[in-house]
Design a protein that fits this description.
Blueprint (H helix, E strand, L loop, with lengths): L9 H17 L4 H16 L4 H7 L12 H13 L3 H7 L4 H5 L7 H11 L4 H10 L10 H14 L16 H17 L4 E2 L12 E8 L2 E7 L3 H6 L6 E7 L2 E9 L9 E3 L3 H12 L48 E2 L3
Antiparallel strand pairs: 1-2, 1-7, 2-3, 3-4, 4-5, 5-6
Length: 338
């Protein structure tokens, strides 16, 4: 029998949305993104009917509510259907994709590790999609029979929410992703980012992991250094950068690394998009396109806060909304760099 998923009450969903807003504010996210989560929390608290049953009937576009955009609708649907929210786990420093995979019957820690290393999967929806499209059989130890069992379990747990949004959202340009990566590494180097204490591989609970939230057009980026067992084993925790990209109906994840060999050796590369990166660098060398913007680019700078602005970035004192949640009781360890 498939494992039962916890059903969240509207009050619990609202509390989780409030916590997202609180942590986003503490980590210098755009004020409008902070306000959107706080408004959504207030709306969910006033709903007369529970959201969990509705989330089981709707596709993965999420629960539809007045004034709630696609990204927030997806987050509310995830909370209502599964009792968890990947974004909240990341903001808390509790994100553990491999542990999440072990909640599926038949997947233990070793197999979860192989799935993560082979396919980069960290969420149950990504796992369901890989099982449904046959990609899961690429993982050593995963035959068709086991993949079918996993798919059956996940379809029951996610209530077969298999319909994807009709519009196809293009991948973010590699130039934009490399610019965000460069800005994150520069600001991490200069110590101007809020740091969180990841729960994984951090026995002393040290707040060492810098986090950056930036907006580029319609896309919201969250950037963090990789905190996987593999990055620790290879000593690349200050090189591999994980980008979470939230854009309307889609949330994507990408890892950017310094290539060690081949024609791109020494250059920053978006994993899985090496051919595009090679074309990008070739165009930059010939003067056909611009190189990534410098880390001090004002469009990548965090909104003004109580901390000192990063070097070479003009502070915009009036860009933060008056909303300023109290972060003293947030369920994470946050530390300013100053």
């Amino acid at each position: 029998m498939p494992a039962e998923m916890p059903e969240r009450s509207n009050a619990a969903i609202a509390d989780a949305l409030d916590e997202v807003g609180t942590l986003l504010a503490a980590q210098d996210a755009h004020p409008s993104r902070v306000a959107a989560y706080c408004r959504a929390a207030a709306m969910v608290r006033t709903l007369p009917e529970p959201l969990a049953p509705a989330s089981r009937r709707l596709p993965r576009t999420g629960v539809q509510l007045p004034g709630i955009g696609p990204s927030l609708a997806r987050a509310i649907g995830e909370l209502a259907a599964t009792g968890r929210l990947g974004l909240l786990d990341r903001l808390r420093g509790h994100d553990d994709g491999e542990a999440r995979l072990t909640t599926v019957p038949g997947i233990g820690p070793a197999l979860a590790h192989r799935i993560h290393e082979t396919l980069g999967i960290e969420t149950l929806e990504e796992l369901e999609h890989a099982a449904r499209t046959g990609r899961l059989t690429r993982v050593p130890g995963f035959g068709r029979r086991r993949a079918r069992m996993v798919l059956t379990d996940l379809q029951a747990r996610l209530q077969a929410r298999l319909v994807r949004p009709a519009p196809t959202v293009a991948e973010p340009p590699v130039a934009e992703m490399l610019a965000v990566d460069r800005a994150y590494r520069e600001r991490a180097r200069t110590g101007t980012l809020v740091k969180i204490a990841p729960r994984r591989l951090n026995p002393t609970r040290e707040a060492w992991l810098p986090v950056m939230h930036v907006r580029r057009g319609a896309r919201e980026y969250t950037a963090l250094f990789s905190n996987t067992a593999r990055s620790h084993a290879l000593g690349t925790t200050r090189d591999w950068v994980v980008l979470y990209v939230d854009e309307d109906h889609h949330e994507r994840q990408a890892t950017i690394v310094t290539e060690r060999c081949g024609p791109l050796a020494g250059k920053r590369v978006v994993r899985g998009r090496e051919i595009e990166c090679e074309a990008y660098y070739a165009g930059a060398a010939s003067g056909g396109i611009d190189m990534p913007q410098p880390a001090g680019d004002a469009s990548l700078a965090p909104r003004a806060s109580g901390r000192e602005a990063p070097p070479r970035t003009p502070a915009r004192q009036n860009d933060r909304a008056p909303l300023k949640p109290d972060v003293r009781n947030a369920d994470t360890v946050l530390r300013g760099s100053s």
